Amino acid sequence: MLERIRIVLIGTSHPGNIGATARAMHNMGLGDLTLVSPRCEPLTSESISRASGADHIVHGARVVETLEEAVADCTLAVGASARSRTLPWPMITPRALGERLPTELAGPESRVALVFGREDSGLSNAELQRCHAHVHIPTNPDFSSLNLAAAVQVLAYECRLAWLAAAGAEAEQDEEPHQPLASHEELEHYFAHLERTLIAIGFHDPALPRQLMARLRRFTLRARPERMELNILRGMLTATEKCAAGRPSADQAVAAPRADQDGDGKA
Ligand code: SAH
Known about the structure:
Structural class: alpha/beta
Radius of gyration: 31 Å
Number of strands: 7
Bound molecules: S-adenosyl-L-homocysteine
Helix content: 40-55%
CATH architecture of the largest domain: 3-Layer(aba) Sandwich
Number of domains: 2
CATH topology of the largest domain: Alpha/beta knot
Largest sheet: 7 strands, parallel
């Protein structure tokens, strides 16, 4: 997923920002950088030093003249904007952008571009109108503009979070194949067994039910137990019944605590 996310910088004027962008990208596992008409030499000692070891991304950056060329093969282009513009456009939050990525990048041909503007004037309206949606990083409204590479860092981080969440969900599926949930009938057998057992151990008095079974039903149904989990519970009930058959009931135990107990009736 991360391989098919492209960072596009338009009209960048400071080599240091290109280097810092490369670093931010590499930190988050992104590698595709395209520079549109940079207003500085991209490869300088400053950009290499700010890249701090991610200079392969600066070396590998594609340089093109127009935004159209930069995003020609992209299926989604999102423009990062520090301020709201006159013409309303679909706006998404950085988090929502990340959450959209697994779906947007599901097809093998799909590619997403995140487009960033100039340090002094941002993206032009014409450039913004070439993007499907705009993303604004929520900031102090009185001081809303982030440094270019810092803005790349925030959005690249959201991409990584979304990728980790998607990878984690897949790994979870692999680890734990989905177990069938208990059926209605299995649950009814369980509730009948539970009631029998609770009566046998003197915990439940059917003459004075106090909604006990209803509450236990509600609790159990809320958990949506799997068949296997219900089998474990039924095994515990069977063991409890066997145990209870050979011992005095809990009522009797409360009524006649042994001398060596604290008097709370519990063994
Ligand atoms: N002075 C410019 C902002 C330049 S910052 C202006 O007023 O538009 C350089 C680029 O960083 C912006 O074009 C934008 O792509 C990105 N950026 C900065 N702050 C941002 C924010 N709060 N949300 C989204 N992108 C931001």
